[in-house]
Specification:
The protein is globular, with a radius of gyration of 19 Å. It is 3% helix and 65% strand. The longest helix is centred in the first third of the chain and has 9 residues, at 7-15. With 267 residues, the protein is mainly beta.
Length: 267
């Protein structure tokens, strides 16, 4: 499932585009990270890159309208390390760049955004096939030309299953994210579903939802994204994931569509 080099420059740029275009969030398309923890002493590293764009947007009533055309590139890094059997250390770093398709002098180098957070994921309950865990992250970020503290807490539910001889997983997450100054605090609801079609190939579907509260003169927002990807295990330690995503519904947000490529490393 988030900063410009100059706040005044961003204010001038945002004054020329609809409000809904001003907050494509730091939550670029990270690969599925299920509720299950890392084994003790094991580490998982995921790096993903994405490119997306939009030229239409959902207004305050959820109606789709034409909007200024923007493009976005993003880079996301996730690291999980099993500290104990019940606790994993988590780190997330995100960087994205939102730019209008038609540049002006005031748009140059004004759209870079980032966040960096770390914390823990702790197991609350499990029975082998299912797990309930909680995650808490804290750190900092930069948005709308302003830097500040960020935080993210969420409850995660995961379940492994077998369907017609194919192994799979389902994952539900509900959380609250306090974003950097200039962006809306958000409620997050994410669902992921994976099915292993081949011993080395897994298909992953996701629904990523973010509800932003009205904040600092910005109206409330809603973004519902769907994503579909394939993950291929090249070896026991390396995997590649490639997929696409789109915004299927929203309020005060752009109808974003794009693609992602991720590399997984386990050691």
């Amino acid at each position: 499932m988030g900063m410009g080099q100059d706040g005044m420059r961003l204010e001038r740029r945002h004054a020329r585009m609809p409000t809904f275009a001003a907050f494509l969030l730091l939550a670029g398309m990270l690969p599925a990270k299920a509720a299950f923890l890392q084994d003790k002493g094991a580490t998982q590293f995921i790096q993903s890159a994405g490119i997306s764009s939009f030229s239409r947007a959902f207004d305050a009533n959820g109606r789709l309208k034409r909007a200024s055309a923007f493009s976005k590139t993003s880079l996301d890094i996730f690291v999980g390390h099993g500290l104990t059997e019940a606790v994993s250390l988590i780190g997330e770093v995100s960087s994205s760049r939102l730019m209008p398709r038609i540049l002006t002098a005031t748009d140059v180098d004004s759209g870079t955004m980032w966040s960096a957070m770390g914390g823990i994921r702790a197991r609350l309950w499990h029975d082998g096939a299912s797990i309930i865990s909680v995650q808490a992250l804290a750190g900092g970020g930069r948005d709308m030309g302003r830097a500040g503290m960020m935080g993210d807490v969420r409850l995660l539910l995961g379940h492994n299953f077998n369907l017609a001889g194919y192994s799979g997983f389902a994952d539900l997450q509900a959380g609250y994210r306090q974003t950097a100054p200039g962006s809306r605090p958000e409620l997050r609801f994410d669902a992921s579903f994976g099915l292993r079609l081949h011993p080395d190939v897994q298909i992953i579907g996701q629904v990523l939802t973010a509800h932003g509260f009205s904040h600092a003169g910005q109206p409330r927002s809603l973004r519902v994204k769907t994503a579909l990807s394939l993950a291929w295990d090249i070896s026991k330690t390396w995997s590649i994931q490639i997929g696409g995503f789109t915004t299927v519904y929203g309020i005060n947000t752009g109808q974003e569509a794009g693609a992602t490529l991720a590399v997984w490393r386990r050691f």
